[in-house]
Design goal:
homodimer, ten-stranded mixed β-sheet, 37% helix, four-stranded mixed β-sheet
């Protein structure tokens, strides 16, 4: 199975309002709830692609119960979340019906105790024993040490399990130094890590810092991969329009499934770009549209940039 | 005991953000959760005043569990909520730290089935048997008939229990026609009910429509009471500043406690005005400041307007 780790799981709530006006009172027209957090989103996409997935991380309180109830209704995803005393955070996305724009409110997440963090690490080691790959995704809740991902990367490598890291800031910086097989920063995260706004140079620098392979997601410009096997750029010929929520998580799922199927890099990248675009165009935020994916995957242009300046 | 009815209970969530900007992403600095809905707020204030209170209405789902857990930690309030299949609504208040302003997002509430509504009515009749007064407060969740409050008013009157109604729109219009002992509309609700923006005339009209007594809450202008015993205006000499959340519910608690203690109208009104103002000035939204209440209650000016034009 593929293991996804979401230390800061979330109950993702979407509110549809007629028009968001600061300092006014709003009647919410529609409420949608989903289990969330980057690794949970990756797990859902992997399961939809037919993979057997186990989702671990933390869940607690009444919001954690909501997350687990909804995860139980997601075929193909096994719940291996570790219970905690604090309550799983909520994220609230307020969609303005007039403009289509979204205003996002993200709770920080529960305080994790040292004992809970130790219990998670035991669970992680146990789950790694039957994992073909692991994805470490998203922010850290309060109480989890900033070097947490670095430790989880080392444990995965010691167990011989390929490990993908998708986070930002100091946890990314430390995690990269622990030599993960793959990191997938977006343009902002990559610039923050390397100090360079030039993607070719920045991906190279990220490898120098320890990542075996780097795939940078550059929004409408697609993906830029810098790997031991070469360098590629993958993009659709035209920009797709829609809601970018979850597009990065779908790209991670595409890269991970390509890795365990041992696809060549160009095919992995085409899959990741198409899944990402099929998520942007989907009418349901954060879900990918299967028909769009199947149509788009053949239209991704992958160019070899191994010898680019 | 005093019975409060909250058909559309809520989990009231307050988010503190640095500055709310539409279409941006926000890290929530602080999350506060409270059991809410008007009748629950009234119950909390009555309990703080030393009354024995029972709170009924509906609660369901993980949010309903949060409401009940928090109610269990409120001394003096007995939980007699009726379980339902749908989830209790959330209200989200986003407080902007820069301006101090609040943006409110209110979910509609769960769909109540006919069987759940019937179960509530049985509970209500049973609880009325030991109630000295009952307050019917707030909006109706989907599925509850628009004439619900009218029926609950008639049942209370048949049981000989004084009944206060605090709602708006069509449920208020129908409820008033069922002859409640007291209604407490604010200026907007009163104008909507009667078609008149002139409070003296409008309170008279509301009595003509069936309410035995009417106490209109007019914000900084205090309370205007039109009763079989006479007509009074009660207000503080100077406006108080702060957060008006829950001020109306505190006024209801003051009126209700004055009723069961059989205080003369001027003393009831002074208590209601002081509790309301002590809620506005309280540092905690929706709670009243006891020290402020005790200081303010002696400063409320009550003028007899029985013979006013």
């Amino acid at each position: 199975m593929i293991l996804t780790v979401t230390l800061n799981t979330a109950l993702d709530i979407t509110y549809r309002v007629r028009s968001l006006r600061p300092h006014a009172s709003h009647r919410v027209q529609e409420v949608i709830e989903r289990p969330g957090g980057k690794g949970v989103n990756v797990a859902r996409v992997l399961a939809a692609l037919g993979h057997e997935v186990t989702a671990t991380g933390f869940a607690g309180g009444d919001t954690g119960r909501s997350v687990r109830d909804r995860l139980a209704g997601t075929p193909g995803v096994r719940d291996a979340l570790v219970g905690v005393g604090g309550a799983t955070r909520r994220t609230v996305a307020v969609v303005d019906e007039l403009t289509g724009d979204t205003t996002q409110l993200n709770e920080p997440g529960p305080q994790i105790t040292p004992a809970e963090w130790a219990a998670f690490q035991e669970t992680y080691v146990r789950l790694l024993a039957s994992a073909s790959a692991v994805a470490l995704c998203g922010s850290l809740p309060p109480g989890v040490p900033v070097g947490a991902y670095a430790g989880l990367v080392r444990t995965a490598r010691a167990a011989g399990v390929p490990v993908l890291l998708d986070t930002d800031g100091e946890p990314l910086r430390r995690g990269v130094a622990a030599r993960p097989d793959l990191v997938k920063p977006n343009a902002g995260e990559l610039a923050e890590l390397t100090g360079s706004h030039e993607p070719l140079r920045a991906t190279q620098d990220a490898r120098r810092r320890g990542a075996h392979a780097v795939v940078a997601s550059l929004g409408a410009d697609g993906l830029l991969a810098h790997t031991p096997e070469g360098r590629w750029r993958a993009a659709l010929p035209a920009r797709v329009h829609g809601n970018p929520t979850g597009a990065g998580d779908s790209a991670v799922a595409g890269l991970l499934s390509g890795l365990i199927e041992d696809l060549p890099w160009p095919a992995r990248l085409a899959r990741a770009v198409a899944l990402s675009a099929a998520t942007v165009v989907s009418p349901v935020a954060g879900e990918f549209d299967r028909g769009a994916y199947e149509e788009l995957v053949g239209r991704v242009a992958v160019t070899d940039e191994t010898w680019a300046a």
